Amino acid sequence: MRTHIEIMGNIVNQVYSNALRISSTHHTEHDVKSLLKEIGSTIEVFLKEAVYKSRRNRGNFFELIDGLEELSVSSKSIHTLHQLRTSYNKAKHNPGTHITIMEAIRILTDVRLVLSEIKDLDIGVVNECKHEEYERVVWIAGWDHFTTSDTEISIIVPYEQDGTMAYIPTLDYFNIHWEGWDKITERFSSTNKLFMGQTYFPASTYEYISGMEDFIDAGVYTGDYRDLLIEISKHVDPIKEGALLPDLQRKNNASAMFYAVIYASCDAICEGKWSRSLEEMEKSVYRILEYRYAAPLDSPYLLKIVPEVVKGLKNLKASHASFIKGPKFLPKEKYNLLEKQAYINLKEMKILVTNEGELIVGM
Q1: 52 close to 124: Cβ distance less than 8 angstroms
Q2: Which of 133-137, 269-273, 350-354 is predicted least confidently?
Q3: What are the domain boundaries of the chain?
Q4: Domain 4-121, CATH 3.20.20.70 — does that match?
Q5: Most buried residue among 19, 123, 283, 356 by CB atoms closer than 10 A?
């Protein structure tokens, strides 16, 4: 787990990197103001939650900053935070205000120094670990195949159909028993993790998906992606799956098998099955792939990916060999930032293991 100050520091570093990146490209005031709005709001929450331990939640940003004097924060740092506050308020409430990218970079540079001082002062709970909850939003859609007596489920990356895409961007897909669809949707709908129907989709996208032959319904899932994979996998019929045309079989989909391997590898580690013996570790991963993620072991992609991932994780630190956090799927910008904190970097597969024991996958 990371501390409050480490999380805040990472956010500032990420925004700082973004500011440097856009400074050399053509950018608008909106781009600059977006950076300041993100940092301003995040710092305000950080002060309330970590510095004041949620005791001054009714205080405004000005009062929160001024109150730092009583906690021995230097006048220079307080001045820096007031500069941030002023720029943040201008960016948020005054559309006519001009703020340059160089001003934003200077403020971000100074804010990094403020955080360093607050860390050294050990104020509030800034150096205590913070429990971070990660969620992921994906769409699921189902189609009944009457000729093969199965239901196809696609796990879809949220997108807007504007008429230019001739395909649905999918992360994974399954072929399950007919009765499995209702069981899956009922389980997650009952816990408010899944919301079914047209209401939750961009109109053009739902119209496109629902217009496909044999469509059942679609929904928006928010939660742990692992839980979704495991639940759907329970309803896969290997015999029916194997009878499908090769292009329709999940084992022949590279991304589906890659995600299954990543989850199975993390599961193997957390269940105490990590081993310096590559052969033993591979066996553990294959077993989990078969019984938990319904991954056919004769998949050509599994036979390639499993040895590569297992070999890459051979040098896990002792403290991470029995428990690893993840996988966490992050966009390119966040992934690139975390590369500096990784001691394992499998560049071709975009897999990192950080010093905090997080397994990160770049999207």
Answers
A1: yes
A2: 133-137
A3: 4-121, 136-248, 253-362
A4: no
A5: 19
